[in-house]
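Much of the work behind modern protein science is quiet bookkeeping, done one molecule at a time. The fold becomes a row of whole numbers, each drawn from a learned catalogue of backbone shapes. The protein below has been through that process, and both of its lines are reproduced in full.
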Amino acid sequence: MITGKPLWESSNSEPNFENPKLSTEAKDFLNNCLVRNSSAHWSADMLLNHSFLKSADDVQPPDTKKRQCDGMLLLRKKKPTFRTQPHIRDLVIHLDPDS
């Protein structure tokens, strides 16, 4: 998802993170996450202590306002009206046999 291409173009290749927006630390973190050789895998503790994640503690998300989808806004503005179908007995014409 980062590059818009499959990470592994062949079964023997290493992941390729050609994205100018990725920092060197981010690329290193991803490379260590996606190691195929099981003897070279980083442990979860090692990954959690990577400098990329440590530097993420200092990053603050931008202030954003919550947006609701248009459909939800319409539901809030309109009060729902529920119609029930009349019962069949209310539709039948009652004939009085005495008349």
About this structure: The CA atoms of residues 34 and 95 lie 81 Å apart. The two ends are 80 Å apart (CA to CA). The first helix runs from residue 24 to 33.
